[in-house]
Amino acid sequence: MIVRAAETGTPEGRAALAELCRIYWHPLYCFARRRGLAPADAEDLTQGFLADLLARGAVAQAKAARGRFRTFLLASFENFHSCQRARACAAKRGGGKTIVSFEAIQAAEGRFHDEAATTESPEKAYDRKWALSLIEQAIATVRREYAAVGKGPLFNALKAVLWGEHGAESYAQIACELGSTEGAIKVAAHRLRRRFRETLRAEVAKTVMDLGDLEDEMRYLLAAASM
């Protein structure tokens, strides 16, 4: 995806860049809030940075040798913030472009306040939000897949197994509710976990510049999500 996003002159490149913006909007917003910015200022900064990224095609500057894309993006975000402060200019909100919807912005601030108070650094908050954003994207993808084949109720009943094991009593209860057998539900849970892992790997693969880094990035994601 990062390689495609660098090709800003093509429809595929613009679509890939837009998806990257959606993935990283909340992690960047959370970083700005942890740095002490007010909600409106954090929103302006995040919207402005991503609008600038879209306009300049700066993703093309990201090289595999420079490390992880998430670290490249965060460094670029901090540089952008420094430039904005140095210029002391009140740029038009979001650079005239809407990167995410107003509802998504409200939800982001709501999630920020709903979290328990923590002393984690802005950098750790950014990494954790990056990890959770990819996990949420993977869950949403699998949910759509199951709904498309009429298995939405099965997904809803078993989604908790994505992060933990159900006990025998829970599987039996789910089987009773869905008119199935405990054995069939256990098999379905195994398949759901496998599909989720595959989908999550695919999501992480979109955000690495070298697929040789995929396994390390997967391990880092799981650790970051558990912070």
Describe the structure.
- With 227 residues, this protein is mostly helical.
- It folds into two domains: 1-115, no CATH class; 121-227, no CATH class.
- Helices cover 70% and strands 0% of the residues.
- The chain is built from ten helices and no strands.
- The chain has helices at 2-5, 11-34, 39-56, 69-87, 102-114, 122-148, 152-158, 168-178, 182-205, 214-225.
- Helix 2 crosses helix 6.
Helix content: over 70%
Radius of gyration: 20 Å
Multimeric organization: single chain
Judging from the principal axes of the Cα atoms, what is the shape? elongated
Strand content is under 5%
Write down the domain tally. 2
What low-confidence regions span 5 or more consecutive residues with pLDDT below 50?
A: 89-96
Distance between the termini: 27 Å
Mean pLDDT: 80
* SSE succession: HHHHHHHHHH
Strand segment tally: 0
Helical/strand content category? mainly alpha
The description of the largest β-sheet is: none
How many H/I helices? 10
